[in-house]
Amino acid sequence: MKIHDLWKHYPTLSKDLQKTLNLMEKSISISNQDVEDAIIEMISSGGKLLRPAYLILFSRFGKPDKKKITALAAAMESLHTATLVHDDIVDEAELRRSTPTLQHRFGKDVAVYAGDYLFVSSFKLLANYASSLKSIQYNAKSMDAILSGELGQMSKRYKTDVTVDDYLENISGKTAELFALSAFVGAYESDCSLLFSNKCKKIGHSIGMAFQIMDDILDYSQTSTTIGKPVLEDVKQGVYSLPLLYALQSNRSALLPLLNKRENMTDADAEKVYQIVQQEGAVDKAKKVAKDYTNNALAAIKTLEKVEPKTAKTLYDLTEYLLQRTQ
Amino acid sequence: MKIHDLWKHYPTLSKDLQKTLNLMEKSISISNQDVEDAIIEMISSGGKLLRPAYLILFSRFGKPDKKKITALAAAMESLHTATLVHDDIVDEAELRRSTPTLQHRFGKDVAVYAGDYLFVSSFKLLANYASSLKSIQYNAKSMDAILSGELGQMSKRYKTDVTVDDYLENISGKTAELFALSAFVGAYESDCSLLFSNKCKKIGHSIGMAFQIMDDILDYSQTSTTIGKPVLEDVKQGVYSLPLLYALQSNRSALLPLLNKRENMTDADAEKVYQIVQQEGAVDKAKKVAKDYTNNALAAIKTLEKVEPKTAKTLYDLTEYLLQRTQ
Predict the structure, then answer these.
(1) Would you list the DSSP string of A112-128?
(2) Contact across the interface for B152 and A32, Cβ inside 8 Å
(3) How far apart are CA B122 and CA B27, in angstroms?
(4) Which chain A residues touch B120 with a CB distance below 8 Å?
(5) ipTM of this predicted complex?
(6) Percent of chain B topping pLDDT 70
(7) How far apart are CA B73 and CA B70, in angstroms?
(8) CB contact under 8 A, A151 and B113
(9) pLDDT tens digits along B19-28
(10) Is residue B151 part of a domain?
(11) pLDDT at position B325
(12) Which residues lie below 8 Å from residue B214, measured CB to CB, with a gap of 6+?
């Protein structure tokens, strides 16, 4: 398995991430060939490994034990992958990373257990490599927050009264929490103080928030071929993200009749929604929010230069690069 | 919520189990009302709470911290319930404990997340109350074994060459492991030695094996109204348990044409399978295996009398009662 091209500019990190991916693969050993194949394919389908990358980078502010850090990084990515597999069941998604989803190819039964196995694999890596019960406790708390975010999003499906605050709360759980946890665990398990590790956690959280908002903005900026999934699929599924919420604030009357079609929204309707969001300048408003989170993260990273200048610089460059994809 | 009638003869245990159930309910707090309702309903639908009961009983061989033991007992039952919810998705099951399954009532999307939430709830209780990383590690290992059992069973669906050993290996994972873990965690987290706790684990494992075999035998001994699920539903789903495997050994030619109909097996076919299993004396053969596991467990429990006579007696009586349901 080969890691994402993104990392070719970061040679040492790239080496660590390759080890992480190899360990993830090695940790999958199941008597059921279908499920094993499905999981290996999912792992190797080119995820960006951002959570492991942040865990590894933040560990460098302390005294990282390489073997442990690789295992914990693999645990984060396994957990992330588990949530993707189960999300795709719930969303009835057909494509993920430009390839057919696991549930679409192998059926829901395989996908349920494949996700469960990835959860367990994550749990095993964590239990066997974390040095303290505290890390396990933080992890459990984060898993709770992640699931609450997913469930919050699900309960707001097709609700046109969902607020910007609802949205921010849901993405805080479903996305930012795992970035926050990765940053925290990397630092804390490398003997950084609780105070310092919590600072890292906060940076991770801001990065996660900005990342998710940028990801949601992509739906309104690119075509299906460049992002690997059908355009406005989320809207058809009743998941309304920040650009759409801002457009709803400024031109509710134009959008409501389209959104109220719910599952029956056609491609032409989706196209209209897309146009209205553009006209209302809602993408720029959303970008502004992402930029605020990005700037918060970058400013906080700057303050880490005195601790470990080289790591702080890598962290800064990577974060800037990732979060300014379309800015 | 009220606990199962089974416990009215065990007043102190009954009190502890009621607390366990209350804590399980209290641990469920989700922003999504559908999922919360679904989980609470599943928890309160009258499971026997056997795993918590064994955890609590085995804790009495040491110095149990009541609050911790209640939490760990709740963790075991939450984990068990999580596996039931996801199994019902995979099995497309319509009934569980005589009531419609969660996935049948609320849909697969709710059921996927409800199961995930129960996993997380179990993980949280464990992380917050276990005193040692070792317990967490054992738990992770058991979760791996449980899932491997489920997956092993799934990979053997509709396979008429599945052996008795395959069957025993799969139920060892999917059922016996959690009984073993409950016994182990109860003792180990109450300051029993690792040696003693491993002895408890072995007893729990034998109880779990006997319990699952007896449960599978019930399919061939009772009607749908008494066990709360349709007769031979497992066989129609391609899951072949011990009585059928013994019947396949002695009268393969009569069974193969019926089993090879797979999903298309009719109620009349299932009735024929039922009759053949009866004629071949396969139920008695399976009962003999269950009895061996039961006797192993009871003999080992006897040796615990010198440690804690009263607890050993309760354990003996309960186990004898549970495992001789149809013997």
Answers:
(1) HHHHHHHHHHHHHHHHH
(2) yes
(3) 9
(4) 140, 143-144, 147
(5) 0.88
(6) 96
(7) 5
(8) yes
(9) 999 999 999 8
(10) no
(11) 59
(12) B290, B323, B325, B326, B327
User: What value, to the nearest 5°, has the Cα angle with vertex B211 and ends B210 and B213?
Assistant: 65
Enumerate chain B positions whose Cβ falls within 8 A of a Cβ in A: 30-35, 86, 89-90, 108-109, 112-113, 115-117, 119-121, 123-124, 126-128, 130, 132-133, 136-137, 139-141, 143-144, 147-148, 150-152, 154-155
Is pLDDT at A176 greater than 60 in this prediction?
A: yes
- Which comes out higher in pLDDT, residue B226 or B193? B193
Q: Please name every residue paired with A95 in a beta bridge, in sequence order, or none if there are none.
A: A100
CA A187, CA A162: separation in Å to the nearest integer? Answer: 36
* pLDDT category of residue B230 using cuts at 50, 70 and 90: low
Residue B157 in this model has a pLDDT that exceeds 80: yes
pLDDT at A325: 59
d(Cα A208, Cα A54) in Å, to the nearest integer?
Answer: 11
Is B282 among the domain residues? yes
B89 chain-A contacts, CB cut-off 8 A: 108-109, 112
- Coil vs helix vs strand at B57: helix
Which positions in chain B touch A81 (Cβ < 8 Å)? none
What's the one-letter identity of residue A24? M
Q: Give the CB-side neighbour count of residue B61, counting CA atoms within 13 A.
A: 31
B260 and B130 both lie in a single domain: no
* A130–B133 CB contact, under 8 Å: yes
Mean per-residue pLDDT of chain B: 91
Residue among A137, A139, A152 whose CB faces B32 most closely: A152
Q: Minimal CA–CA distance to B169: which of B198, B205, B222, B218?
A: B205
For A77, the token pair is 């990515």
Quick check: is B308 in a domain?
A: yes
Residue to test with chain B: of A84, A90, A103, most B Cβ within 10 A: A90
Residue B139 covered by a domain: no
Binary contact (B127, A108; C-beta < 8 A): no
Look at chain B and report how many structural domains it folds into.
2
Render pLDDT for A254-300 as a digit per residue (tens, 0 to 9).
999 999 999 899 988 998 999 999 999 999 999 999 999 999 999 99
Domain that holds residue A174: 7-323
